[in-house]
Amino acid sequence: MSSADAPLSGDAPIAHHLLSDTAAVGEDGRLSVGGLDVVRLVEEFGSPLFVYDEDHLRARCAEAVRAFPDGVAYATKAFLCKAMAALAVEEGMVLDVASEGEALVALAAGIPASRLVLHGNNKSYAEVALARERGFHRVVVDSFDEIARLAELAEGERPQTVLLRVTPGVEAHTHEYVMTGQEDSKFGFSLASGAAERAVAALTALPGVELAGVHAHIGSQIFRLDAFEREMELLVPFVEEHGLGELCVGGGLGVAYLNAEQAPTLTEWARTVRSACAEAGLPRGIRLTAEPGRAIVAGAALTCYRVGTIKELPGIRNYVAVDGGMSDNPRPVLYGSGYEAFLPRETGAFRPYAARVVGKHCESGDVLVAEAHLPADVAVGDVLATPVTGAYGHSMASNYNRLGRPPVLFVRGGEARVVVRRETVEDLLRLEP
Ligand code: LLP
Fold first, then answer.
1. What is the extent of the structural domain holding 307?
2. In this structure, is residue 230 part of a structural domain?
């Protein structure tokens, strides 16, 4: 478990375990990340701004590689740009890409095709062909139509290695929208109905295709490791029965977003999965692999905004409005996700001021932190930060109300580099004649 020293009351200061590895608080209370003062970064690069702690990213990738020595993919949907793709591969990961776009960004970063794993419940012919022609590490097969697409493609020089995605029938305790292991799912082949069995037969009969193993992904933001144990209990017999060489547990490990939350580490997750496999009798020599996204990148970043207006509605609530919103973080609106907010100019300050942190979009649902606690002296012009925004924030950002998406900074050892620049009006107009 990560540090358990967080005070739990609502007005307590932001808990240190929600800040990234190199986060440090100076005697004046100001926050620095990667050796750089966060308020000053906003002065220089503007707001909103995603600030990623590069050492933190590298440490999580390295931890994942140690935890799953047989191979581990970074799920790029959580956050992808060329710098991130390169970093994950430098640290020893392969990349899970779930569309042609994600694949082409990774290839543009100079990642060899042999380090890409193609996912998707509805891969186009072009996507399957791209993987086949370039020689992707794995294609994770999701439907009988996809098997037909594979069959239509000419055999390449090498056989295409595939994994079979199955739905094990495990209901993880998480938001309904990100649960994927249950029977009623658009993903994979059901174990219980016999579809998985038939898919094995179809793939084994296909020339130029090598079925390496089985894959499942039971959902995302999962705190309770027993769901993964259950997954292994169901998958191990299938692997044994079909003499497969690889078992991929998928991703899904949860992270702490709130002061009061604690999440298992990647190391603890791997240990639990490994012992569940041993208990279920997984034969030696079978590769145990994984593909985390959120647990690699979420805690590495914070989003910095400027407070533009504060409205105090007596007897109702206080609204603190910032210069971003649902366009840079749609998770609160989509999943009711909770976040903390704090002021990096006084990081350790108590936060007795109850407010709703909202964005600047033209709808009431544009909420970033529904029940925020802020320091009493929060004022217009302040830099306000929400931690743990490194996953599914920038990657799900939109241009709603024609806001440009914020830039992404990587900070490390006192240096900042812009890895994605801020979108401009020219970017917003570039698709129009
Ligand atoms: N593998 C597969 C096949 C996946 O579909 C996913 C995520 C992952 C791995 C990585 O899962 P992670 O370790 O990040 O939980 N937008 C939602 C999360 C959607 C997850 C989609 N699939 C959110 O913001 O919570």
1. 16-52+299-429
2. yes
Per-residue pLDDT tens for 84-118?
999 999 999 999 999 999 999 999 999 999 999 99
Q: Hey, which of 95, 249, 294 would you mutate to test ligand 1's pocket, going by the most ligand atoms within 8 Å of its Cβ? A: 294
Q: What's the domain count of the chain?
A: 2
Residue-averaged pLDDT of the chain: 95
Q: Which ligand 1 atom is at minimum distance from the Cα of 180?
A: 5
Diameter over CA atoms, the chain: 72
10 falls within a domain: no
Ligand 1 atom at minimal distance to the Cα of residue 292: 13
The pick from 215, 217, 222 for probing ligand 1's pocket by mutation, whose C-beta has the most ligand atoms within 8 angstroms, reads 217
Q: How far is CA 113 from CA 106, 136, 282, in A?
A: 9, 5, 30
Cα(374) to centroid of ligand 1, in Å?
A: 30
- Model pLDDT, residue 175: 74
Q: Which residues are catalytic?
A: 362
Report, as an integer, the average pLDDT of 165-184: 80
Ligand 1 centre and the CA of 392: distance in Å? 9
> pTM score > 0.70 for this model?
yes
> How far, CA to CA in Å, does 157 sit from each of 124, 254, 424?
22, 40, 44
If asked whether residues 416 and 340 sit together in one domain, one would say: yes
In CATH, what number is assigned to the domain containing residue 82? 3.20.20.10
Contacts of 66 (CB under 8 A, 6+ apart): 267
